[in-house]
Each structure stands twice: as structure tokens, then as C-alpha cells.
Design brief:
The complex is a heterodimer of chains A (177) and B (577). Chain A is of the alpha+beta class and 177 residues long. Chain A is 33% helix and 39% strand. Chain A has six helices and nine strands. In chain A, the strands form two sheets. In chain A, strands 5, 6, 7, 8 and 9 form a five-stranded antiparallel β-sheet that branches. In chain A, strands 2-3-1-4 form a four-stranded antiparallel β-sheet, sandwiched between helices. In chain A, a hairpin with a 3-residue loop joins strand 6 and strand 7. The two termini of chain A are 39 Å apart. The model of chain A has no long low-confidence stretch (mean pLDDT 92). Chain B is 39% helix and 17% strand. Chain B has a six-stranded parallel β-sheet with strand order 3-2-4-5-7-6, sandwiched between helices. The N terminus of chain B is likely disordered. The chains are: A alpha+beta (177), B alpha/beta (577). The interface between A and B is medium-sized, with 21 and 23 residues.
């Protein structure tokens, strides 16, 4: 793919865990009028180090520039970008559906089975389905359930680990010396 | 035991004392060697001012007339001295008034620490009186910022603030401190910051990249150096001069790089950019190797990037990795501190003179001289030109004055025509183009370097944006020489209206007050010049004055600054008229 062509990239940013850093990082995208497709923050594998996973639709030339601006921030340790082919990722979807449908519409049970979705909870009014996977799988399940009526639906940001090694620990050690 | 070892022993004994957060703030400033700070008191910062009162023999607080003035003064202080400038304000409007100066310091890489008071922590987020989210507001325009709500955190955070502001590519840092943290007592001890885990201020210089650069430079037939403020910030003036002289490379500068090599140096070929000199702009598109040192290819320097130095191999010496390939694709990027990189480069360079190539610069200078410079410096028309005033200042100061300019036509004229024989002599708002910068920045510069002659040059527009700082000059007895080049217009905008908007002079004509009376109202000696025959003598009187002096020079109303690269055009399309 040419460096000028837009595609989805997952940006992984390892940072100190500080209030205000999210603002600083999102401002870098906002300033260039780049829409953030999804965003997730969590602790990383290293104690005291946070990890942002941000998905954006950009070309490679510009994502490199964005990474420069991100890494320039004092509290950012390191950032990487990957195409979706270079990461193992999951997105979660939650569906809230009327409980009566589970018993009245036999087809729903088949849909749940085929899609490998998981029932999180059931009570007399509603049940909640959880489906993790790629975006398309969740969209597909949504489309199948939609005709029966979905009370609530939400989809999480993308979380990912990379196929390549990320040497954050050794990088931090080199910073300490 | 000599005094040095006694001192270092004293330093190593860490003592703690129980003091308030506000006293700790002042003690931290003193520990960082701050002798002067600029600011404006108010509710949420009052405990700190109370401590400044107690410590006034150790640290001098300058009451500016507006918080914006405090930031620009701190910038002027930093730019002339290389030290960290400090500005202080209260919460709410005090804090928001700092933003212009902070944004200016960010884009011009000026080391500055701003301290703001904040409402007590239990009121945060409640829309309390004079509460504003200054950390949120200042985030995009600071190198780092932080809110402190616990007194115990003050020493560490302020130590970090000074370290971050000054190290690597410098920039502004804002620390917001709640009023309860200022009041609370804690056990104080201070340790300077020398390291922040996630922050690497200076990338290591890769010797192999320096070798690659040297190879390209040695093979070049038509090399051109364009240096920026990175030389001054990296204190690499001597190194740059040695490189330029050994390899015989014509060297041009961006406005923030001005004065790193004296104007009179034979290989200094002038300013690049929109109103820069003819030769370095034209020849940017003829050189075979373009060596950019400590500059960032701003659009005012490059014009259209599609037609900028496409024929040249580009070498970029730069401390900030984010600048590499940001605007101009480089062939060799040498990361690191300019002084270190140039020291490594020098022994690898072959002696050269590039006489023929250099002659091209001289030939083009002759064209610029005939078409522009001659008429600017020695006009035959009746009205005074801005350049004539600069010429007189050069003569009277022997080119040793620090020129602090504002923004607009006079700024371009000052940069083009001032003789800069001493480094750190061109203090101006480059990246942000902040009108009103000049007068307060000159105050800061004069106070940081009282032995230097500091001349503030403004237009009649920008001058009135921070004119109230005349009060600071008066109160501080700061011997700033204040020149206003008055054309009764917002001249640069008017020039664009003339050239690109069919002479529709929308809101650019100024009906001005009696500037001399205003200066005299602040008890500052003042004079107005309207005729050529009075100019030399008036400038002489100003320069000889031991105290502050105001000089208004009424210049031709509708003069334009040339050469000019129209916005978005190529450097090759530079216009001489």
C-alpha cells in the first residue's frame, strides 16, 4: 500500500500514568482534524506504565509525523503504529435484548450459538449478549439481531497486542542510565 | 579546604525545614537561581506574594501592568540571557492573560516557567470565583504543565518544571498551584531535577550520520547553510563560524537565528524567508546541498514546499526528532545538540572557498541593493524610511545593541537592516507573530542584561497593544530605549491590502494619540522626529541617554517591505518591487 493512501492504523502509546495526558494526546489529533475511530487506555505489562491504543484512519506519511509529535510529549515513553494486519486485536460488543425473545424466537438461539456470542446475564426482563472479535463479526451479529429489536447496543474500542516485540522495559532501563 | 569543596559539602547535606507551600515556591525559585520574576498579584496567588515580600532582598519581583506583559518580559529575559524566564499570575483572568506569551514561547522554543495560583482544591470544578481550567487551556501551548494540590509536591514539581523548560528544545512550562497547597506547611527540602524517566531531551548524535553529512558537504559544488535559533540555544556560535569558514559555505539565517554570526561576516549572506534577502532565497533553489542547522522549515521561510530546494540534497541538523521530514524531506538527518554535532563535523570537512558560487550571492545582492536597499537606506523622497532609523541606530550603537522588535513591517526592516555584531541580539516574536511582544520583552531583556544597550522597536499598532508597560519601565527605572516607527497604519496588513486586496484598506488606518505626551505622562524622556535632518541627532540623544528614552519617528505612510515572497509562492518568485 502506498504511503499516501489512507488506512486504519492502531497507535500504541506507552506513557506515565498522569492526569491530563489524554488531553495532551487527543489535542495532537484534534489540531490536525483527525477523527479518532476508537480509543482505549489501560495499564500495560509494566507496572506504573499506561498504554493508549488509538485507532485512526490516516496515511503513513502523516501518521509518522503524528507519532513524532506524540513522542515529543514529556510523559510519553514510546509510541508505535501498526496496520491492523500486524496486530492481534479484539473489539467487544454488548447487546441488551428482551428476555421473552429468547424463548419466543427460536432463531435467536441459533444466532447466538453460531456467532459464538456469550450470554452475560439473564433476568425476567432482558438478557445481555457479549461478542468479542473483529469489527465485522460484531456488525454481522448486530445486523442479525436487529430485526428482533435490540434494547441497547455498545461497542468497545479496539485493544491489541502486536506480533512484533515491544521493548519498553529495556527502553525504560536505557532512559534510567 | 578550598571554598569549592566546602560549598559542595554544604550542598550534600539535605536539611528539611517546616515551611508553607508558598514559602517553598519562593525558596524553589531561589534554589533555581532566579533573581528576577515578572508577575501580577491576585486572590489565589496572594500567599506567594506575601513570601516574595519577605524574600525581596533575594529575589526581585517586577510588577508588570498586565499579565501578558509579564510573560513577554520573562521571554525577553530568557532570550537575551539563555536562562529560564519566570512569570507569575493569579487564577482565572490572571492565568488566561498568560496564554499569548506561553504560546509565543512554545513556538519560539523559549525556556519559561509560569506559576499560577488556583482556587482551593475543594472548590476545583465548582465554577468558583476566578476559577479556570488553566491546565486544560494551556495544554496545547506548553511543553509540560501540571497542577499541584498538595504542598509536599511543590519542590519536586518545580524542580521538574525548570529542568523541562531549559533542557533539550526549550519551551514554556506552566505550574498551577491551589491556594490550600500554598498555605499548608510541610517538611521542605530541595533537589534539582536532572532526569525524567519518560523524557529524553537530547537525542544522541549518530557519528555515522555526521560522516554522511560531511561526505555530501565535501562533494558539494554549491552548498548553502541556513541556520536557525538552534545555534543560539545550543550555544554553537563558534562552531558554526568555524564550519562556515573552513568549508567556505555561504550561510543564511532565519529571523530567530539572526546574530549568531555577525552581520559583517563575509560568508553571512543574509536572511531567508518572506522578506529575507534576494540572494539566499533565489539560490535556495540553485544550491546542490542545503544544510539546515537548528531550524524548522517554517512556511515563512520555505514558501511553497512543492518548489522548495527540490534540486538539493538536504542535510538537517536538529535536536527535535519531530522536525525531521515534517516539512522538508531530508537526505541526511543529524540528531542532537548543534554544538556537539558541529564539533564532530568540523574535522571531517575539507577546506574550501567556493568562490564562484559565492560570487553569485554578491551579484544578486547588487541587484537587491540597487532595487531595494539603496532606496531604503538613502531615500531620495521626502518621507523618512524605517531603514534610515535602523541605520542611525547601527551607527550610534556600533551594531552592539540588542534589538527587540514587535511584529509587522518595522520588524522585517529591523531584521533586515540592523547590524548584529553580538549573539542573542535579535529578540522578536518569530513563530507566533505576537503584536505587543516588543515593549515588555525589551524590559525583560534590559533587566537580564543591564550592561547591554537594549532598543525596543515597534510600530504604532503593536506598541499600543502593550503600551501600559511604560509604567513598568518607569517604576523599575529600566533604561530601555523605545522607538516607535509611526506610519499611522497597521503597515504590514495595509501592504497586503495594497498588493492582494485592491487597496481596500479595511481597518488598517490608525488615528493615533500624542505618543510623546503619553511617554511623558510616565515621566519618560520623549521626542518626536518628523524630518530627516533631525533624525541622526535625535537617535544620538536617545542612545546617549542613561535612562529610558522614547523616540517617535514619523515615517512614510505607505511604504512597503521588499523583497517579498507572496504567501504560498516559491522562494524563486521573490519580488523586488
Amino acid at each position: 500500500m502506498s504511503t499516501e493512501e489512507k488506512q486504519l492504523y492502531s497507535v500504541s502509546i506507552y506513557t506515565e500514568n498522569n492526569i491530563g495526558l489524554l488531553n495532551r494526546i487527543s489535542a495532537i489529533f484534534q489540531r490536525r482534524h483527525i477523527n479518532i475511530e476508537s480509543l482505549n487506555t489501560s495499564p500495560s505489562e509494566i507496572e506504573g506504565v499506561s498504554k493508549f491504543t488509538i485507532v485512526v484512519n490516516m496515511n503513513e506519511v502523516n501518521i509518522k509525523k503524528i507519532l513524532g509529535q506524540i513522542e515529543k510529549q514529556v510523559e510519553v515513553i514510546k509510541s508505535y503504529y501498526h496496520s491492523l494486519d500486524d496486530i492481534i486485536y479484539q473489539i467487544a460488543g454488548l447487546f441488551k435484548i428482551k428476555s421473552e425473545l429468547l424463548f419466543e424466537e427460536r432463531q435467536i438461539q441459533n444466532i447466538i450459538k453460531e456467532s459464538n456470542a456469550r450470554i452475560v446475564t439473564v433476568n425476567k426482563d432482558f438478557f445481555v449478549l457479549e461478542k468479542s472479535g473483529k469489527k465485522e463479526e460484531i456488525v454481522e451479529l448486530y445486523n442479525k439481531l436487529s430485526p428482533f429489536g435490540i434494547m441497547q447496543f455498545t461497542r468497545s474500542g479496539l485493544i491489541a497486542v502486536t506480533k512484533e516485540e515491544m521493548k519498553i522495559s529495556s527502553l525504560l532501563e536505557s532512559y534510567n542510565n | 579546604m578550598d571554598t569549592q569543596t566546602i560549598k559542595s559539602q554544604e550542598k550534600s547535606i539535605k536539611t528539611t525545614e517546616r515551611i508553607s507551600g508558598s514559602e517553598a515556591i519562593v525558596r524553589c525559585l531561589i534554589e533555581e537561581g532566579v533573581d528576577i520574576l515578572y508577575g501580577y498579584p491576585g486572590g489565589a496567588i496572594m500567599p506567594v506574594y506575601d513570601e516574595l515580600y519577605k524574600y525581596q532582598d533575594k529575589i526581585h519581583h517586577v510588577l508588570t501592568r498586565h499579565e501578558q506583559g509579564a510573560t513577554h518580559s520573562a521571554q525577553g529575559y530568557a532570550r537575551i540571557s539563555g536562562r529560564v524566564g519566570v512569570a507569575m499570575a493569579t487564577s482565572g483572568p490572571g492565568a488566561t492573560n498568560l496564554i499569548t506569551g506561553i504560546a509565543d514561547a512554545q513556538i519560539d522554543s523559549t525556556p519559561m516557567v509560569c506559576i499560577t495560583g488556583q482556587v482551593p482544591s475543594h472548590l476545583l470544578g465548582s465554577d468558583a470565583f476566578q476559577e479556570t481550567d488553566i491546565v486544560g487551556i494551556s495544554t496545547p501551548v506548553t511543553k509540560w504543565n501540571c497542577q499541584v494540590t498538595r504542598a509536599e509536591d511543590i519542590p519536586e514539581v518545580l524542580a521538574k518544571a525548570f529542568y523541562i523548560a531549559k533542557s533539550g528544545r526549550p519551551g514554556p512550562v506552566l505550574i498551577d498551584i491551589t491556594k490550600d497547597a500554598q498555605f499548608k506547611e510541610f517538611d521542605f527540602s530541595y533537589e534539582k531535577c536532572t532526569h525524567v524517566r519518560s523524557y529524553k531531551p537530547v537525542p544522541e548524535t549518530d557519528v555515522s550520520k555526521v560522516e554522511e553529512a560531511a561526505k555530501l558537504i565535501n562533494a558539494a559544488k554549491k552548498p548553502l547553510i541556513v541556520w536557525g535559533q538552534g545555534i543560539i540555544l545550543g550555544e554553537a556560535e563558534e562552531q558554526l563560524k568555524a564550519v562556515v569558514e573552513k568549508a567556505g559555505i555561504p550561510a543564511a539565517w532565519t529571523i530567530l537565528g539572526a546574530s549568531a554570526i555577525p552581520t559583517s561576516h563575509p560568508l553571512n549572506v543574509g536572511m531567508v524567508g518572506m522578506h529575507g534577502n534576494y540572494a539566499p532565497n533565489i539560490l535556495t533553489n540553485e544550491c546542490d546541498v542545503l544544510i539546515a542547522i537548528g531550524m524548522r522549515f517554517d512556511d515563512r521561510v520555505t514558501g511553497s514546499l512543492n518548489t522548495y530546494a527540490k534540486q538539493a540534497k538536504v542535510i538537517h541538523f536538529e535536536i527535535d526528532p519531530a522536525e525531521i521530514d515534517k516539512n522538508v524531506k531530508t537526505d541526511v538527518a543529524v540528531l542532537g545538540n548543534s554544538k556537539v554535532s558541529l564539533d564532530l563535523l568540523l574535522p571531517l570537512l575539507e577546506q574550501n572557498s567556493h568562490n564562484e558560487w559565492h560570487q553569485k550571492f554578491k551579484d544578486l545582492y547588487e541587484i537587491e541593493y540597487e532595487k531595494v536597499i539603496k532606496n531604503d537606506l538613502y531615500p531620495t523622497k521626502e518621507g523618512l524610511t524605517m531603514a534610515e532609523v535602523l541605520k542611525e541606530i547601527n551607527i550610534q550603537s556600533e551594531g552592539k545593541a540588542a534589538i527587540v522588535s514587535d511584529v509587522g513591517q518595522h520588524q522585517m526592516i529591523a531584521c533586515r537592516y540592523a547590524d548584529f555584531n553580538v549573539t542573542k541580539s535579535n529578540i522578536t516574536s518569530g513563530g507566533l507573530g505576537t503584536m505587543g511582544f516588543g515593549l515588555p520583552a525589551a524590559i525583560g531583556a534590559k533587566m537580564a542584561a543591564p550592561d547591554r544597550e537594549v532598543v525596543s522597536i515597534s510600530g504604532d499598532g503593536g506598541y499600543q497593544m502593550t503600551i501600559q508597560e511604560l509604567g513598568t519601565i518607569f517604576q523599575q527605572k529600566a533604561a530601555v530605549k523605545v522607538v516607535v516607527l509611526n506610519n499611522d497604519f497597521l503597515g504590514m496588513v495595509r501592504q497586503w491590502q495594497q498588493l492582494f486586496f485592491d487597496k481596500r484598506y479595511a481597518s488598517t488606518e490608525m488615528v493615533n494619540p500624542n505618543f510623546v505626551a503619553i511617554a511623558e505622562g510616565y515621566y519618560i524622556k520623549a521626542r518626536k522626529v518628523t524630518k530627516r535632518e533631525d533624525l541622526a541627532e535625535a537617535v544620538a540623544e536617545m542612545m546617549q541617554s542613561k535612562e529610558a528614552y522614547f523616540l517617535e519617528v514619523c515615517v512614510e505612510k505607505e511604504d512597503n517591505v521588499f523583497p517579498m515572497i507572496p504567501s504560498g509562492a516559491s522562494v524563486s518568485d521573490i519580488r523586488l518591487e
